[in-house]
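Handout, section B. The chain below has 784 residues.
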Amino acid sequence: MFFRNLVWHPVLVICLLVIQRGFCAPLDKIHTRTSVEIQAQAVTDLIGRLLPGRANEFDVKVEPGLPGEENGYFQIEKVSGNATVFVRGSTGVMAAWGFHYYLTQFCHCQVSWDTDQLNLPAVLPDVSVRITSLDKLRYYQNTCTVSYSFAWFQWPRWEREIDWMAMNGINLPLAFTGQEIIWQRVYLGLGLVQADLDEHFSGPAFFAWQRMGNFRGWGGPLSDNWHQATLALQHKILERMRAFGMIPVLPAFAGHVPRAMERVYPNTSYTYLTPWVTFEDQYCCPLFVQPTEPLFTEIGTRFIQEMIAEFGTDHVYNCDVFNEVPPTQSDPDFVSSVGASVYSAMTTTDPDAIWLMQGWLFKSEAAYWTPELSKALLTSVPQGRMLVLDLQAEINPQYIRLESFYGQPFVFCLLHNFGGTLGLNGAIPTISDRVIDARNFPNSTMVGTGLTMEGINQNYIVYDKMLEMGWRNQAPDLNQWYDEYTVRRYGVDSSAIKSAWRILMTSVYNDTSGRSFHGQYLLTSRPALFKFPFIWYNSRDVILAWDSFIASALTEPMLSEAPNFRHDVIDVTRQSMSEIFSQLYGRLLVTYCDKNVTALGEVARHMIDLLQDLDNLLQTGPKFLLGKWISDAKSWGVTEGEILQYEWNARNQITLWGPRGEILDYATKQWAGVVADYYKPRWEVFIRELEITIEENRRFNSTAYQSMVFNAVEKPFTFSTKIYPVVETGDPIVTAAILYDKWRNIYQLDNDNPITDCVALEETKDDRGDEQKRFFYLVENSEM
C-alpha cells in the first residue's frame, strides 16, 4: 500500500532516457520559490481552520526529499506515548496531502465539497509511513469550472477551496480570477476605448467562453467595481496558493481580440472566427489576429508583461487557441505558425514560460485535428515547453492516438462532469486502470494526473477515487474501497449502507458505455414528445439503493445525524424521484397515444405533484438551493444595476444559456427554486398543449410549443428577481421518508415500456425544434 521507491517507475526511467531531448528538463523549473517556513506555517494554519480544537496535536515541517523522491514525498509519524503527529513533506502541498492522508486512511475521516466528517478518535492512531508521489504534477480545474462553479466565489469560499486543493495534493491549479482588468489595461494602451471593451467583455457567468474566443459581450459589460474587487481577490488567491508551494497557472494570449482592433489597426490581417453554437452576430465571432502579424506578438507580450508586473509569475501559462472553433485553414504550416506565435508571445517576456494547453480540441474536433495537423501544433513548441491536459482521458484519451502528444509531457485528466449538472453517474471501475495504462504506455510522457470537471459539488466519490491515483500504483479492490469510503464519509460502519453503495457501484457508477454524460434527465430538459435521454443503468437499481438508504436513515440514529449522510439521502432520493418521473413520462405518452385526455390528466397530476415534492425535498439541503447561487452572485454588486446584472447572469447560465436558448439546459441544476419555478411550469405548459392537441384532434406542434414555453416560462425566469431562501429548511431525513412512502410504490419494478407499441412514435419522434437539434448535437460533439 505504501510506495517509497520510485527508481523503476516508468515515467522516471523515460525521463532519464530522454533528458537530452528536453522532455523533463523544462519541467524541473516548475517549483515553488516560497520558503519552507512559510509553507509549513500555511499547513499549520490550514489544520487550525479545519480542526481548531485539536490542531496542537500536529507538528508540521517542510523538508527536502531523498534521492528518488523528486516528485515529492510526505511522511507521517506518531508513536505510542506521544500525543503529537509529526507531518513532514517536501512542500507545503505535500505536507497537507500527508495530513489529509492520515485523516482519511487512519482516522477514517473525509473532507469534501459536500461537507466534512471529522470524528477523530480521542487518541490519534499510531503510524509510521513515508509515501512518494507517483507523478510530478496534480492539476486542478477546467477553464469552464471558473464559470460553472467559481463564478461568484468570495475570499472565504476560495480559502476553503484552496485548503481542499492542498489536502488533495494539488500543486498546479488554474488561477484565472481578475484577468479582465489586465486585458483592459492592454487594450486601452493599444488605442481602444472603453466602449470597445464594453462590447467585448462578457458577464461573469460566461467568462470562460469569451476568454477562449467562442463569443463576445454576452452578459456584459463589466464595471470598474468588478475589476477592482476581482483584482484584490486574485492577489489573495495567488498569495495563498504560493504559500502552500503550489504553482498557479496564469492566462496567456490566444489571438482573440475585440472587433474594434480592426478599426484601430486596419492594416493588420484578421480572421472572423466561425459562429459558435448559433450565437448571432451581436455576440459571436470575435476577431482572430493572424499569428504572423507583429500585432499578435505585441498584444501577447504586453499581456504577459502586465500580468507579471501585477501578479508575479510561476512560469506556467494556459492558452487555448481553438476551443471548439477549428482553424480556418487546414495547413500544417499555418497551424504551426499559430503555436510558434503563441509561444513567442510568452517567452519574449518570460524565457522560462511553459505553455499549458487543454487538449479538448483534439477530441471535440477530431475530424479536423488529424495526426498531421495535431503534430504541427504540438511540435511548434520546443519539447518540454508545452504541457498538454488530456482532458477526458478516463473515457477518450488522446495520448494513444497522438503518440504521447509527439513527445510533449501530458497530464492524465478526469473530466466526468459537464455544466455542473447533478445526477449520480461515473465510470469508477475504469479510473484506476486508465491511469495505470497511461503511465505504462510505451514511451509515455505522462507527468501527472488532474481533475478537469466543468463543475464541482456533485458525485464526490468519483473525484475521491481519482485523487488517490496520485499515490496508488495499482487498482484497489473495489468492494473494499467502497466499504472504506462509506465509513470515511459517514463516520459510521453500517452494513446496510455499504450494501446500498454496492448497488450504486454496479449501476450508476459503472458506466461502460464510453459516452459522455451531460446530466440531461427528462425532468430537467425542455419537455418534448418521445424524448428519451441516454442511460446506461437499470433504474431499478437506483430504487433498490433508495430502499436501503431510507431503511438505514430510520433505523440507525448515528447514521441519520451524519451530515454527509443527510446530504446523500437528499441526493439519492432526488435521483430516485427523477427515475419515477421518467416512468410517469412513459405512461403519459401512452395516454397521449391512446388519445385519452382523462387518463393523461391523471398521470400529469402525479408528475406535477412529484416536481413540487422534489422542490420541497431540495429545500432541506444547503447544497441544493437556487437562493445561495443567486445570493452569491448579487453579493458582488455595488450598485443596483450591478446586482440586477449579476442575478440575471446567474439565472441565464443555468437555464437558457444564451439569448435564445443557444445551449438550453446545458448547465441545468436540480435545485430548490429551479424545480418549482422553471421545470414545473414548463411541464405544465407542455401537458396543457398535449391535452389541447387531443381535444382538437391534431398533431402536437413542437415549434409553436417551444416558442410558447420560451416566452411564458424560460425567458421570464431569467429576468425574475424573486428571492429564494439561502439556508436550508426542514429535516432531510423526515422529508425523504415521507416522500418514500408516497412515491415508492408508484415505481414499477418490472419497468415495462408499452410506449414501443404506440403507433404515433414513428410519426412524431423526430418532431423536434431547432433548439433541441442543437442541444442533441452539443451533447454528442461538444464541451462547454
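Note. DSSP finds 30 helices and 17 strands in the chain. Compare this with the example in section A.
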